[in-house]
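**Discrete fold encoding**
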Amino acid sequence: MTSINGLLAGRSALITGASSGIGRAAAHVFAREGAAVTLMARREPELKDLVDELSASGHRAQYAAGDVTRTEDVARAVALAVSSFGRLDAAFNNAGTAAVPTPLHLTDTATYDTLMDVNVRGVWNCLQHEIGAMLEHGGAIVNTSSTAGLVATPAAAPYIASKHAVIGLTKAAANEYAAQGIRINAIAPGTTRSEMIARWLELAPEMEEALRAAAPLPHIAAPEEVAQAAAWLLSDRASFVVGATMPVDGGWTVR
């Protein structure tokens, strides 16, 4: 049953990129922590199954299929959260995409455009509509960047640029709206056992040990571990945390 004493008890929360990976895990974590969740992603069948699963467990959940690169889709998801649950208190802007590692001089323009459109414009669109819905009563927002938003690695220039941009947007928005009661932060996940990582490991199982050994904590994160960090940042436990980027990477960025 829905928690009445959880970190997000009584909150209305929007999660983008909710059909898989960290976003799907966040739907479960936020619901268990007491939030009513509105889920957004492009894959409607997966969203419907997730909402059915959450509802069967006694949680309040709904979905709005859509693409974060389309501002009208984001507006519709925010409006649904407000109309169904009375307001929007929390948002986890988690939708994003990656690309096959490629040297910068061989990366095509279409790949650059897609990464910037989804990872940056998508967060921009979400911030605009979410902030607008929170101005009257305040709230909290978490954007998903990456360890690639903190450091550079080879053969991923446009992805690194997009995730650095997410941190820049987070800082700018946090500075602008903190005094109006809206806390905005980011997380920077390290290697997480997502669908994409699972596919890579199927093709190259020998990479698992290398990924585990890359951080002081020799562990590939479960999506739930990253989602828990986002839930904390969205909660009152993080009431004095503004404009921060929290690495959730097993210590990878301290090396």
Remarks:
- The chain has eight helices and seven strands.
- Strands lie at 12-16, 36-41, 61-65, 90-93, 139-144, 182-189, 245-248.
- The chain has one domain: 12-190+222-249.
